[in-house]
Amino acid sequence: MPSWSVVICCANAEATLPAALASARWADEVVVVDSGSTDRTAQIAQDSGATYRLEPWRGYSQQKKFGAELAKYDWVFVLDGDEEVSPRLAEEIAKLTDAELDALDVLYVPRRNWVLGRVVRAWWPDWQSRLIHRGRVDWPDEALHEDRRPTDPSRTRKLAGWIEHKRAGSAEFTDYFSGARMDERLLMVARQMHARGQRVGFLGLWLRPKLAFFKFFVLKRGFLDGTFGLLVAQKAAVSTQLKYAALWAVQAGVAGDQEDREHPEH
User: Fold this and answer.
1) CB-based contacts of 5, cutoff 8 Å, min separation 6
2) What span, in angstroms and rounded, lies between the C-alpha atoms of 203 and 225?
3) How confident is the model at residue 257 (pLDDT cuts 50, 70, 90)?
4) Is 133 helix (H, G, I), strand (E, B) or coil?
5) Which residues is 106 bridged to in the sheet?
6) What is the mean pLDDT of residues 66-81?
7) Domain limits of the chain?
8) How far apart, in Å, are the Cα atoms of 173 and each of 19, 178, 179, 238?
9) Class of the domain covering 4-165
10) Which of 75, 138, 139, 190 is 20 to 30 A away from residue 68, measured at CA?
11) Whether pLDDT at 202 is above 70
């Protein structure tokens, strides 16, 4: 039988961490990596019996890599403090055999995202590389969010069970539709895009936001959610416009020299 570790990286997650921990009871071990909470996160984690570690923020990928290195077992499920493993996903993982896992490096899991208490139809399935063999993955540095890539792309599989994201706890409008939060990360993302050879011109700046709106409102059927779906598609269009505007500023040399700020996940 395989042994499993769940690694939860979080900060100030007292409202959502109990649900995350409860959803990980199927695991043989739970590790919580706290990047500097000022609320009851540490107490909640320690009271649950999880291994608790306070670690300054290393960035999205490196924080989770650090957590995976703390784990006892090679097979690690990476979870955020505002996420939950659904019962169906837990059952599916429990059925995996050592023979199946010997042929795999990464198992991809869909994520069901909640915004203001509603499931976002247009963001499904939002595939995530969460169930990994820590010795058989690479951890690329990403300016925003994170990823884990198999050493052999053929050694992957998709699971049907899902992660719930932001289902628990309460969230305000600004947690999803905040220009200030978006601005904090724009240049960081744009500079990484530029370093990887991406460029944008007149046509891209004009067309990309429109295509983003069309994708989420029409192709991903956001229109079925009415006004809520319209807001989600508009958010995608605005985010795309700002991201590529920042890329244009970087490639034109007018982005400024101020330091970008990175913040712990919450």
Assistant:
1) 27, 28, 29, 30, 31, 68, 71, 72, 73, 75, 76, 77
2) 30
3) low
4) strand
5) 132, 156
6) 97
7) 4-165, 173-252
8) 22, 8, 11, 16
9) alpha beta
10) 190
11) yes
